[in-house]
Design goal:
45% helix, 18 helices, 3-stranded antiparallel beta sheet
Length: 398
Amino acid sequence: MFMSPIRDPIHGYIEVAPHIERLLDTGIVQRLRNIKQLGWTNLVYPGANHTRFEHSLGTYYLASRLAGELSEEERREIEIAALLHDVGHGPYSHDSEDIIEQYTRRRHDDVAFLIESEEIAGILDEYGIKPSAISGHIQGKTKIGQIISGSLDVDRMDYIIRDAYYTGVAYGIVDYEHLLRNIRFYDNNIVLYYRGLKSAESLLMSRFLMYPSVYDHHVGRIAGSMFVHALEAAILNGDVNAFELQQMDDYELNARMRNFNEYSADMIRRLNSRNLFKRALYVGFDSVDKSIVRYTRIQKDIEREIARMAGVEEGYVLVDIPKMPEFRERNTMVLMENGQLKYLEDVSKLVKIMEESYFDDWRMGVYTLPECRDRVARVARAYFNVERVPRQSKLGVA
């Protein structure tokens, strides 16, 4: 079978099977070329301009490596699912994810409506593959779906290595070759052979270090929050239909937002010129109780109240309350040398420490215009009952 090679900076030459090449040329997949993998993170790391298209290719490659023990039919299905697993992402990737789910009740992996379209379904039909099977694999509802959506899957394996490479941070050195050799099916579940434990720890440590330095970098959080508020205002104003977002790309939405309502247009202009809001408050669980995450239900009310008390125009105080950290990897099963199965967190002390340490990096932010920062900070500290932290004096030279 002739395989077309595609040169990838992470995996080298990726051999593309004919059924994958057919899907690559569809508009649904090509749209991913114009969706940045890390949203607005390129405002922090200028090299972070890689796309969902590249990541999808990488995920396909890694999935094909793990599919060696599957039947030909299963192998073909999981390769297709790996390639298509991100076609449901909206513009700027995860930055639009919560808004899309809020207004459409569709998560980014709810892709049945795209896979069932004639463009994709017609190709699948030629190979005797049902779109529903591919959708199930993408959501991790099947045995082989664990390869791309499980506790230790090739999706995160590719994005951690790829994101580290393009941002230039030094956290993406992972021996994924050794890891791939030690992930297998056992009793219909993906398990990690004990001899691959250190490679798995390396992958998870890279991910752990990437969160505070890349994924949750405060500038990226500020830019993402500005974009979310601009997008929601556009939806509420009728400028854009939320159900259309999963078929739009970054450039189309960005261009259209410049002509939306005054608030959305102002926000996108600020983002495009990197004229960003600043932190008025930025605190962790050492300053606020973990129950603060429940405030997301009344986040808009909080923003309006702080803005009113600080004398700032509504929409120019943004409250950013991240979700509680998740650590799905704890459910990874490790096949010990004596044949016993144990949970990863029971085998690795390092993994247990990482799980606990994720909470140390959690931060709640209140952002506003630079000229309003001091008065918003005073009001926000009082509102959330946060004591003012004195500035550290600069260390003198003896």
